[in-house]
Amino acid sequence: MSEQPQEPIQSTEQQQEKKEQIVTPWDVDAGDDGVDYGKLINQFGSQAISEDLLERIERVTKKPVHHFLKRGIFFSHRDMHKLLDYYEQGKPFYLYTGRGPSSESMHLGHLIPFMFTKYLQDVFDVPLVVQMTDDEKFLWKKLELEEAHRLTYENAKDIIACGFDMSKTFIFSNLDYMGHLYRTVLEIEKSVTCSQVKGVFGFEDSDNIGKFSFPAIQAAPSFYTSFPHIFPETAEDKKKQKKTKRKNDIMCLIPCAIDQDPYFRVTRDVAPKLGFQKPALIHSKFFPALQGANKKMSSSSDTSSIFLTDTPKQIKDKINKHAFSGGGATKEDQEKYGANLAVDVPYQYLQFFLEDDVQLEDIREKYSTGKMLTGQVKGALIDLLQKMVAEHQERRKKITDEQVKEFLSVRKLSFTMPTKKEVVPSATTEAKKE
Ligand code: TRP
């Protein structure tokens, strides 16, 4: 069955006419009320992450879920239950995420998927592949090929600084790795038509032909055959595949921002035709710009973003000057009515980065009822981000060119193929055992 949503993604112009929220891999514009994520789930045809799923993840990983999950920052998924079934049955899976290297310095929003991917790698102990789409940025932006390639290496340092385990992580530049990827890319290209990608991505006949084939390149790492050095196939595997017309049972889980979903709808559509498992997905909300939640943070706007290269003073000034406040217009108003947290950017940033639930709840209660002023909340955020960004810079500085090369080199990864998990069905059976 096709996974395309009822209506194809419309071009920006068409959507603006109807004043609908625009969410494509290239453009996010939500109108004044912010992105309606519930509506997006319906539009895209994904599943909301339920309490049940969170509980199940905790049961399977035997760890509390990441605060991004608890707080609904990762809010939508495809096939997570199937992935967990497989995991419990002792079948292997791997993680796949990526980054389009279009700017020298990444901003806070870019960290979200990588911080979350690091958590997933830690709790599931699985291999991770990271695609650097220097080719994509060349095709879409005014960027020279060699510059895009250089940015891959610059950005790779920021990704490595998130703490990934080198023995389980492979980062690759499309420009460098295409020879290895190409067989899988071709299989996909042969199964997807121009009218399909036009329908999903809104490409026009006047767009360059590289764009038309790029979805196959972003899709390919979802299939394990793109990484023969990580997932080698034996002669026996190949014989079996010929008979059954099915590839090995290796699933892929893709953590990404929800705007990347169109690529993976196409991927999931072609997967069964090629004998692969469909990749599972877990989607995040966007990280809001300083000016407000109706735009996502963009690296092309200096005052809308906090960069990973910012100094403590820049961070302080940007938050004080530009962070949109939902607090009362005057001290008296704030004390009387409290803040509107739904539009308050400092509070929203704290939800992303302040891990301590108790502290966050304290701020929520006091700020929303007027017992705390915007300036104090901004102060708490400034302290937190100054520390976080400085620590990131410290870690990044220590990464050598040799280490980057190693992460990007085609090599075996060391991970143990999983075994059947001891399934612990519920808390009550746990209690009975004791
Ligand atoms: N297209 C993404 C970007 O522009 C990069 C990317 C490639 C990616 N593969 C991915 C993102 C897989 C998430 C998951 O940033």
TrEMBL record:
Q: Which GO terms describe its molecular function?
A: ATP binding; tryptophan-tRNA ligase activity
Tell me which Pfam families the record gives. Answer: tRNA-synt_1b
Which InterPro entries does UniProt cross-reference here? aa-tRNA-synth_I_CS (IPR001412), aa-tRNA-synth_Ic (IPR002305), Rossmann-like_a/b/a_fold (IPR014729), Trp-tRNA-ligase (IPR002306)
Q: What is its EC number?
A: 6.1.1.2
- Highest taxon of the lineage: Eukaryota
Name of the protein described by the UniProt record: Tryptophan--tRNA ligase, cytoplasmic
> Belongs to which family?
Belongs to the class-I aminoacyl-tRNA synthetase family.
Alphabetized, the UniProt keywords read: Aminoacyl-tRNA synthetase, ATP-binding, Cytoplasm, Ligase, Nucleotide-binding, Protein biosynthesis
Per the annotation, which location comes first and is thus the protein's main one?
A: cytoplasm
Q: Origin organism of this chain?
A: Naegleria gruberi
**What does the entry list under GO cellular component?**
cytoplasm
The record's Gene Ontology biological-process terms are: tryptophanyl-tRNA aminoacylation
TM stretches of this protein: none
Region called Disordered, residue ranges: 1-23
